[in-house]
Amino acid sequence: MLIVLPILISGGLLSCNQPPNGLHSGVTQSSQTLAKPSVDVTSVREISARSQQNITVYLEGTVGRQVPLAGSQVYELVDATGSIWVVTQGTNLTPGDQVLIQGIVRYQPIRVGGNDLGESYVEEQRQLFHKPSQASTL
User: Fold this and answer.
1) Which segments of the chain does DSSP mark as H helices, in order?
2) 88, 136 Cβ separation under 8 angstroms
3) Alpha-carbon distance values, 73 to 4, 49, 97 (Å)
4) Cβ-contact 118, 110 below 8 angstroms
């Protein structure tokens, strides 16, 4: 998977005249062999403050807690402004990994006594960058 990802990313960047949804053609090289695309990253705080749903965002942060689901996984993405839950089909993440993802903001309403205690979350569309934590590479 790690070998295929840079091929897919670079192939996607080179095959289109117009980059998709805020993806810039500039690419910065990371300390890993994977290229990390330059995108307009949204902070977790911005998502929490938004009332909009079904919008595409780019998030960057550290993988926190994880919860397995049937056929998918939920993980906590933590950045400097907070944390948000991300639903993914991938299972290649471990706590401490650094990721850059493209996802869609969703909202799950939870009604309790006439109050909405719901929460925003992100449905991951694709991983643009993944750097395993030092602990997972030892």
Assistant:
1) 4-15, 44-49, 134-137
2) no
3) 21, 25, 15
4) yes
Instruction: State the pLDDT at residue 57.
Output: 96
Pairwise CA distance, residues 37 & 100, whole Å: 9
What are phi and psi for residue 32, nearest 5 degrees?
A: -90, 180
CA distance 57 to 20: 12
Q: Where are the alpha helices (DSSP H) in 25-124?
A: 44-49
Chain centroid, CA 88 distance in Å: 9
Mean pLDDT by 10 residues, the chain (138 residues): 31 33 34 68 86 90 93 94 94 93 93 89 95 76
Q: Is-contact 102 5, C-beta < 8 A?
A: no
Predicted local distance difference test score (pLDDT) of residue 21: 38
pLDDT at position 19 is: 33
